[in-house]
Amino acid sequence: MGAFDFLLQGLATAAEPMMLLYALIGVTLGTAVGVLPGIGPALTVALLLPVTYRLDAAGSLIMFAGIYYGGMYGGSTTSILLNTPGESASIITALEGNKMARKGRGGPALATAAIGSFIAGLIATLLLAFLAPSIVKVALVFGPREYFALMVLAFVTVSAAFGDSALRGLTSLFLGLALACVGIDQLTGQARLSFGVPELLDGIEVTTMAVAMFAVGEALFIAGQRNVQADEVTAVKGSIWMSRADWARSWKPWLRGTFLGFPIGAMPAGGAEIGTFLSYATEKKLTKHPEEFGEGAIEGVAGPEAANNASAAGTLVPLLTLGLPTSATAAIMLAGFQQFGLQPGPLLFATNPTLVWGLIASLLIANAMLLVLNLPMIGLWVKLLTVPKPWLYAGILLFATLGTIGANPSSFELGMLLAFGVLGYVMRLFGYPIAPIVVGLILGPMAEQQLRRALSISQGDWTTLVQSPIAAVLLGIAALALIVPLILRARGKGQVLSQLAGDED
Amino acid sequence: MTSPEPQNQRRRDTAALVVAAGLAVIAGVMLWDSARLADLGGYSGVGPASVPRVVAFGLLGLSLWTVIAALKGDFPERPAQNVPPVLWIIAGLAAQLLLLHVTGFSIATGVLFAFTARAFGKTNLAMTLPIGIVFAFAVWAVFSQLLMLHLPAGPLEHLLFPGA
Amino acid sequence: MKQFVLASLFAGALAMPAMADYTIIAPANPGGGWDQTARTMQTVMQEEGISPSAQVQNVPGAGGTIGLAQFASQNKGNADALIVGGYVMVGAILTNNSPVSLKDVTPIARLTGEYEAIVVPAASPIQDMKGLVEALKADPGAVSWAGGSAGGTDHIAVGLIAKAAGVDPTKINYIAYSGGGEALAAILGNQVTAGVSSLGEFDAQIKAGTLRLLAVSSPERIEGVDAPTLKEAGLDVELQNWRMVAAAPGLSDEQKAKVTADVEKMVKSENWQKQLSDKGWADTYLSGADFDAQLEKDVTSTEAVLKDIGLVK
């Protein structure tokens, strides 16, 4: 039996009414928990995994797939509507998505996120099914120096989220890098900037920081505004559905996001966030409406959301083919697979085809179910914006703290939430962009560790960084992305790239 | 955008100077901390203290840049702030933090809920506090009992769910 | 069928506890070994009726020492609180100068354990442990080892190997990775000379022929594993990365006996055994005075090697 027959057989099983019901329950539960700020897909799957134990193998597999995709998708809804990312991979979505929602375009933003996620999930799952063994070979070529080069490229692209001032964007980024130094140094076990406080030894939790910066900081800022009219949010303006123009502007970002997110997700140290950063920067470069970026450009939602979902499927490549759990979510999924008697590894596709293809069919069905559940819900979600402010923000803070408490019920963590919330407020007050500080916190440790690993392997020889062709090419692209705008600006062609050359002090 | 802000070129921005000082202080703390780290660079030549030093010098540079920008009056106008609502929310978060392990999730979070509503204009705490507690309790019940999320329980939770 | 779905969803709510239930602290984030151990305990205890609504609570941080400190201070005399821990904690307590140690809780039993495996990529010219040791002696810096976090079991294993081979342990070129997965990718991608991790992490790759297993850290050969022990290879090293469960400090002897009996009932259940074999964990159950003695021995030897590597002063 060929791969295709196995897939058809899996799909036939997964399309039975009972199975569809399980998929629906899984997607609903996953979305409901994943939508909470601070509860990312890892905790969602860990919490809900026991629910699936009570079903038979096929049923639990499909419910599990539903929970996984539901948890991944849930984060974007609050990101768009409430400027409160549920997890680190939907931070970028908040940049443009929330601006759209405030202008009454929450419907199209949610729709492009949902459809983009679906398309990305569909393509990426099929790529996973048919190309996983070859993709993983390419991913393994990436060693520390290649990852370092990738991080450098990601750093350069952060400048796309700097807003209108290079000074304030860089300051925000460096604050994030400073915070990233807190905690035990991965490579030597030395405690840095922890001042003897044991809670600081593990560093600053990215989700706590993101929820504080976005949700708490935002609530404080809105509450402090004297001129209430200035921040009036329009719930719905025009259609809640995507217009013809929206479609035309979304489909390319969906595809580009998919092809950026999937390979990076498949890399053992890639991470879902990096794909979203690169996708956002790409869309900002390619768009025909550069003036809308920062004001609610639909491309800035469509691309990163597709990248996020594609990388979720990408994570399954090393997991299924190598048994490599490359993220917390993947580690929990590995535990889940083992529950179903699925032993991921190089021989999995050969020894256990029925279950693998059953899983892939389940992922496809769950992905479709997500769309079925979420498109009709958009009308309801958008109504969330019509909730009077006192109740809306009281509710946001309730759920934001619930997420933090559920993940780690220590007073210290709540204290950090408050402290960073105030920092987020002050930064908003002075016009500092929020995204770079969170990005710095995520990328900083990755870049530092990969650099030091690369140098350790080469025994201190810095030329190792450009000796691998992949690393050299990636660093070259990063250098071009940095230098070309400067040259263009010097030649007086700066207007086109004004967003990169923001500060003209 | 590329247009410099023309208004009051020589307006000195004290708050921005405070920000610059803050950045310099952070840089100082990082340099001080990195000085006491053992040099365990090993074969890489880049030890645990190297990156914090680079970041600290970056922050010092940005601090200087901020001073220049502040003296030139290049910082944007801050929107006028209404301080009491901000303090209400901070107080709500602090109250939740302090009460959480004493009174349990529902009451502590109910206080946060009511204070936040207060910040946005619902001043009647006698009404918002009970609403907040009931709502928080419902959330607690769903997440801790149905989804097995571990959330701190207090007297109220123990009363209605004796096993919690 | 529909009823069954509803029942399964609401089972958590309906199974209201009639007796005291265990709260199991996993001193790590969801996904890691301790979290999985805690959640497996939860499932088995629920299904075996030992504790119908046992809960798991994650208290992540600093190699488990934050969870341990919180557990020890908040649960004095509370016989319903359990914490999962393991060998990594022994090292973390030392490297982090943790004020709370395993002496401040009541260790109940060792549950599972894994031995360390030393591997090289299939393409490596190194054929056996002897070849690796020779390379190490010739130029310790040129032999890069990929493994888990600094000061963890894998790092300790490399330190012990170097010491046994007569190489200065401070000279090892150890590349720490945050998780077993990332380290494995680096080994498979031929980025490093050798890799050290739990045998289970490498098992599938060894069977598929992409990694070459040089030696294992068990006292005797492991059944079904075609590799010598480190002792056979002439290196006096023996190391088990175990996971245990401990109870709160200040328990009476009766309380301790009850917890031990509950844990034993769980370990002896068919359900637990099935979970272990599903996950590929070895049953290394050990309780009472034997476990206490083993723990004491591990703490002493770990402290010595961490000093040798230079991580503990």
What this model shows, in words?
- The complex is a heterotrimer of chains A (505), B (164) and C (313).
- In chain A, 71% of the residues lie in helices and 1% in strands.
- With 505 residues, chain A is an all-alpha fold.
- A two-stranded antiparallel ribbon of chain A has the order 1-2.
- In chain A, helix 7 runs antiparallel to helix 18.
- Chain A is globular, with a radius of gyration of 22 Å.
- In chain B, helix 1 runs antiparallel to helix 2, helix 3 packs antiparallel against helix 4 (105-119) and helix 4 packs across helix 5 (125-146).
- The relative contact order of chain B is 0.10.
- Chain B is mostly helical and 164 residues long.
- Chain C has two domains: 2-113 and 240-297, 3-Layer(aba) Sandwich (D-Maltodextrin-Binding Protein, domain 2); 115-216, D-Maltodextrin-Binding Protein, domain 2 (3-Layer(aba) Sandwich), CATH 3.40.190.10.
- By secondary structure, chain C is α/β, with parallel strands linked by helices.
- Mean pLDDT of chain C is 82; it is low at 1-19.
- Chain C has eleven helices and ten strands.
- Helix content of chain C is 43%, strand content 20%.
- The chains are: A mainly alpha (505), B mainly alpha (164), C alpha/beta (313).
- Chains A and B meet through helix 3, helix 8, helix 9, helix 16 and helix 17 of A and helix 1, helix 2, helix 3, helix 4 and helix 5 of B.
